[in-house]
Amino acid sequence: MKFTLNLNTKEVSSADCYVIGAYSKTETKGKKDVSTVVLTGWPKELKATFESMNSSADYTGSKGSTYSFNHYGSDVLVVGLGDKTKVTTEDIRKELAKAYKAVSKYKKVAVAFDTFTFKSKKEESLAILVEAFEMTAYKFDKYLSKSESAKLEEVILDSADKGTKKKAFQKAIKDAQHVAESVNVARDFVNEPPNVLRSTAYAKMVQKDVKDIPGVKCKIMGRKELQKENMNLFLSVNDGSAYDAQLVHLTYTPSKATKNTKHIAFVGKGLVFDTGGYSLKPGGSMMNMKFDMAGSATVFAAFRAAALMKLPVKITCILGMTDNAVNSKATMPDAIVKARNGKTVEILNTDAEGRLVMADCLDYACDLKPDALIDAATLTGACLIALGTEVCGLMSNDEKLASNLLKASKSADEYMWQLPIIPEWEKDMKGTISDLKNIGGSRWGGTAKAAAFLQEFIKNDVAWAHLDIAGVGDSQSHLPYCPSKGASGVIVRSLVEFLKQN
Which residues hold Mn(2+) 2 (predicted)? Predict the structure, then answer.
């Protein structure tokens, strides 16, 4: 989708459809509250045409409402945003997403950008507009025998701002496109069927995607290399697979890096399919287990966006890829395996496999001594019980890091909530004939107990945070800029916001 700036204008750009925002004002008249529409920033001719329509007298500009009319041969879509003093950035994002769905049938659309500005924050508002359109335009239809490509090719952004803002606005557009494109890349990976996205294929796809991004290096480690690294927990999950485990080690170094440049490390769970292993999932629970690699797709997308935006922070991204399958070589319940860090783990349930992959990958990442280490994983069904399907669980050993992540998620308008890791849960993950066990003694507190297990593999005093995205990585139908079914890409923008703060 092409975005074209049209600055220093007070007229309506020529397009198939014109999108413009309206607000609502409520006043008390007598004993009644009366709402009226507010047309701030509207071109005079357009305002006159709107007011000449008899039915426009009933339109109040309430949030979520729309009004359509024709202006000199072009369709006009009015998007209601409600009370301007109460509107939020997420309100604007959602209403623009709905607007995209209404106007995507046109080839060229113009938007009165100034009417969708949040508290005079032009660059931020412009980014929201671009993100909303690009994320809403996403479709995963490559396996349909017949599919329709999007008709909307160009979006003209009208603004009364002078040309002096052009460079800043263009950067805001470009950065927002990098972020939205990366969200959509993550969605693509998660939506791929498991017979296509084998661990080996996934690693090659990531390598190909970053090949031409400046400052990025990619190293892929297979089973032999992982054996040399003593990543026995990771390999125990891979034992039943016909495909080699893959550890993808990505690094991004900014062009002006110094010894003071912050170093952030990401680790992502890349279970391309999870049968549960010998602790086999029921058939209904096995459906959609291609989604179990969403953590790796999430951190990769954030890494990718940051590199394309040329953020001044060094980033390492570690992706642990395998499937959890069953054959005669698969790890059996009760097995005891030694981790990379030397601790032994009794594997009581082979369906608690993600934490085994993550454990060795976290230990590996800690050796790089980053300033902060963040992992993302679809780790526990318990997270859905605790926080529902709309909230990402956050657990951490460092309050400052946790606070910064919560701040970033708020800035990105994504939901994140911190859960505790208490000593009792740490104790519950201790073994009797091994150092650790991979499940707790009861089903209660499962999300934080899994985090307590992961914390055993954090060393070198690294500040660490764990994001359980089991609820939010899939089917966020309440968000109009996400597909109603399939990968959401939620939390990518939060991680990008976090990187921008460093």
Answer: 269, 274, 292, 353
- Whole-number Å distance between alpha carbons of 246 and 225: 9
pTM exceeds 0.90: yes
- CA neighbor of 117 nearest in space, from 24, 9, 21, 1: 21
pLDDT tens sequence across 177-228: 999 999 999 999 999 999 999 999 999 999 999 999 999 999 999 999 999 9
Query: What confidence tens digit (pLDDT) does each residue in 233-265 have?
Result: 999 999 999 999 999 999 999 999 999 999 999
User: How distant is the alpha carbon of residue 170 from its chain centre?
Assistant: 23
Q: How far apart are CA 351 and CA 446, in angstroms?
A: 13
Domains of the chain, first to last: 2-175 (3.40.220.10), 192-501 (3.40.630.10)
| Residue 174 DSSP SS3 | helix
d(CA 430, CA 98): 50
Query: Which CA distances in Å does 150 have to 57, 79, 401, 472?
Result: 34, 21, 41, 26
Q: Decide if 223 is catalytic.
A: no
Name every residue whose Cβ is closer than 8 Å to that of residue 326 and which is 6 or more positions away in sequence.
240, 275, 277, 278, 280
Q: Which of 94, 355, 437, 449 is catalytic?
A: 355
Residues making up the binding site: 269, 274, 292, 351, 353
For the annotated binding site for Mn(2+), the residues are: 269, 274, 292, 351, 353
* Angle of helix 166-191 versus helix 199-210 axis, rounded to 10: 170
Token pair recorded at residue 147: 């599919």
Question: Nearest to residue 175, comparing CAs of 364, 420, 358, 3?
Answer: 3
Among the listed residues 25, 171, 262, 281, the single catalytic one is: 281
Secondary structure (DSSP) of 348-374: S-TT--HHHHHHHHHHHHHTT--SEEE
| Alpha-carbon distances of 366 from 187, 246, 247, rounded to whole Å | 28, 19, 15
**355 is a catalytic site residue:** yes
The residues, ordered by sequence, that sit 6+ positions from 202 with a Cβ below 8 Å of its Cβ are: 189, 246, 270, 272, 293, 321
137 CB burial (10 A radius; 0-12, 13-18, 19+): middle
CA distances from 316 to 63, 263, 298, 364, 483 (A): 42, 8, 14, 11, 29
